[in-house]
Amino acid sequence: MKKFIALILVLAMSLALVACGGSSTGKEPTTTGSPSPSANETPSQPAETPSGSEKPSTGSVGYVTDDVDHWARDPYHIVYYNYAPSNVTFQITDALEKLGEVYNFTVEQLSANGDSDAYVNNLHTILLKEPDGLIIDISQELASRVSEICTEYDVPVICVFNKAEDVNGCLLIPSVIMDQEYNGRTQMEFLNSVYKDYWGDIDRSKIALLVMDWSSNMDLNQRGVGAKKRFEELFPGNKFFYGDTASDSLSAEAGFNISNSILSANPDVEYWFIVSTVEDVALGTARAVEALGRTDRVLITSSGAAILPGEWDAGYNGCWIANYAVPPFMYAGVAVFGLFALIDGRATIETLWPEYHQEGDKAARYMANAEMMTRDNYKEYLSNIARSFGVEIS
Amino acid sequence: MVGRRIRHILKSKEMILVLISIVIIIIFRLVNPNFLSVGSLSGIMQAMSLTGIIAVGIGTLLIGGSIDLSASSVCLFGGVLCALLIRANVPWGLAMVITLIAGFVIGVINAFLITKVKMMPFIATIAVSNVLSGINLAVTNAQNVPIPVESFWWGGKLVFGIFPVPFIIMTLLMIVYAFILNKTQFGRNVYLVGGNMTAARLAGVNPKKIHTILYINSSVLAAFAGIVLASRMQSAAPQSQSDSQLNALTAAILGGIAFTGGAGGMAGCFIGVMLFSFFNSGLNSLALDAYWSLIASGCLLIIALTVDYFNELSREKNLKVKKPASAAKKEGA
Amino acid sequence: MSKYLEFSGISKAFPGVQALDNISFRAESGRVLALLGENGAGKSTLLKILSGDISPDSGSIIINGKTQVFTSPHQAIQAGVSVIYQERQIVPALSVIENIFCGDLPKTRFGMIDKRTLRRKTEEILKVFGLPIDPDEPVGRLPVAYQQMVEVMKAYRRNSDIICFDEPTAPLTDSEINVLFDIINQLKKEGKIIIYVSHRLAEIFKVTDDIVVLKDGKLVKTFKTSETNQQELIRAMVGRDVGDTYKNLKRNDKIGDVLLEVKDLCTDVLDHVSFTLRRGEVLGLAGLVGAGRTEVARAIFGADRITSGEIIFDGKKVHFKEPKDAIKAGIALCPEDRKDQGLVLFRSIRENTTMPILKKISKWIFINRQEERKVTEEAVTKFTIRTPSINKLVRELSGGNQQKVILGRWTNSLIQTKLLILDEPTKGIDVGTKAEIYQMVCDFARAGLSVIFISSELPEVINVADRIIVMHNGKITGSVLREDATEENVLSLAMLE
Question: What are the chain A neighbours of B287 within 8 Å (beta carbons)?
Answer without folding.
Answer: 241-244, 262
